[in-house]
Amino acid sequence: MTVAQPTRTTQPTLIASPPGTGGEASPLPQRILMKGNEAMAEAAIAAGCDAYFGYPITPQAELLEWMARRMPEEGRVFVQAESELAAINMALGAAAAGARVLVSSSSPGISLMAEGMSYMAGSRLPVVLINVMRGGPGLGSIGAAQGDYLQATKGHGHGDYRVPVLGPSSIAEAIDLVREAFAIAERYRTPVILLADGILGQAMEPVSPNFEALAPSTPDWTLDGADGREPRVVKSLHLRPEDLERHDIALQAVYEEIEANEIRWAGEELADAEIILVAYGTAARVSRTAVQRARAQGLRAGLFRPISLWPFPAAALREASAGARAVVAVEMSAGQLVEDVRLAIEGKVPVFHHGRMGGMVPTPDGVVGAMRQAWAVTDGGAA
């Protein structure tokens, strides 16, 4: 497997005792079973989350429930707000005061937070937002889906802004990416979205309980009282167009820096692949099995897995697919990831889409069938 991502420099920190026990420190098992929602919550606590704000919604409710127990145990702030609107605006206030903040919800709740996210991006406030996606549009279903990809990667709310988006495909990877999300948020003073799905949130997997800590940050812009110094201003309102344009230009420079430094991806069986699958999250897990089955049947398949959904690893995908016959985007939506895949490929290789909607999950055999269709369509060079 090929992985491109920054190297960590901090050492792992152990949980002193099993979460919720209040007991003395004891040796930890090498692996324990954890539900995805609970593992992401504990990863945030280990990373130093100071304050959590949220509102219950399936399929991420266990994350909120875990934080409701664990945050008071750690002497930190937990608030079940009266609505998603209240939660995101409480997060804005806490972040402005320098707190390390986590918010979580699922698709309809995330939509309600769009205005607050735009305010936080405009104010350059770090926050981590976990979206455990469900089927839509509207209230849709509580089944796992990936229909929020465009919402997350293209800005979420109004205005010229972007936010880094990370897409884990396993619970162990989600644990790592929660910590990375806090680090990126504070490094660039920006909101960061961790885009999971209902299966990742609800499933249980064996994980190492050695959650990693993140060093406390000491920002020089927080609103912590102006006694003995000049007042600081954190805002997103600039009434003079000239001032707002200068502010927006500065934001674009930050996004260019993120694009240069924060691209993450992983590849499997790409060296000789004739058909390349592109997928993230649960769809990537299905695609990994499909690659194995296709190769057992004589079809040289490979998997390209974007981990940073924005910034999208376009150059890496373009290079990986240079010798391929076709690329197939696999996702749990009508076709959202496929748009970035097509932009990355630049028309050099035919790009196809295979997806399920409404909480339905692609099957490995269905993905193999999609690869064989792509092969047949491109036979003789016809796209």
Helix content: 25-40%
Radius of gyration (CA) equals 21 Å
Strand order of the largest sheet: 4-3-5-6-8-7-13
CATH class of the largest domain: Alpha Beta
The CATH architecture of the largest domain: 3-Layer(aba) Sandwich
* Termini separation: 29 Å
Summed up, the helix count is 13
CATH topology of the largest domain: Rossmann fold
Low-pLDDT runs: 1-25
Task: Tell me the total number of β-strands.
Answer: 15
Structural class determined from secondary elements: alpha/beta
Count of folded domains = 2
Q: What is the string of SSEs from the N terminus onward?
A: EEHEHEHEHHEHEHEHEHEEHEEHEHEH
Mean pLDDT: 92
Percentage of β-strand residues: 15-25%
Shape: globular
Largest sheet, if any? 7 strands, mixed
CATH homologous superfamily assignment of the largest domain: Thiamin diphosphate (ThDP)-binding fold, Pyr/PP domains
Note the main attributes of this structure.
disordered N terminus, 15 strands, 2 domains, six-stranded mixed β-sheet, 383 residues, seven-stranded mixed β-sheet, Rossmann fold, alpha/beta
Task: Provide a descriptive summary of the structure in words.
By secondary structure, the protein is of the alpha/beta class. It folds into 2 domains: about 1-5 and about 30-260, 3-Layer(aba) Sandwich (Rossmann fold), CATH 3.40.50; about 265-380, Rossmann fold, CATH 3.40.50. About 40% of the residues lie in helices and about 20% in strands. It has 13 helices and 15 strands. It has helices at about 35-45, 60-75, 85-95, 105-110, 115-125, 150-155, 170-190, 200, 240-260, 280-295, 315-320, 335-345, 365-375, and strands spanning about 1-5, 30-35, 50-55, 75-80, 100-105, 125-135, 165, 190-195, 205, 265-270, 275-280, 300-305, 310, 325-330, 350-355. The strands form 3 sheets. A 7-stranded mixed β-sheet has the order 4-3-5-6-8-7-13, sandwiched between helices. The chain has a 6-stranded mixed β-sheet with strand order 1-10-12-11-14-15, sandwiched between helices. Strands 2-9 form a two-stranded antiparallel ribbon. α2 links the parallel β3 and β4. The two termini are about 30 Å apart.
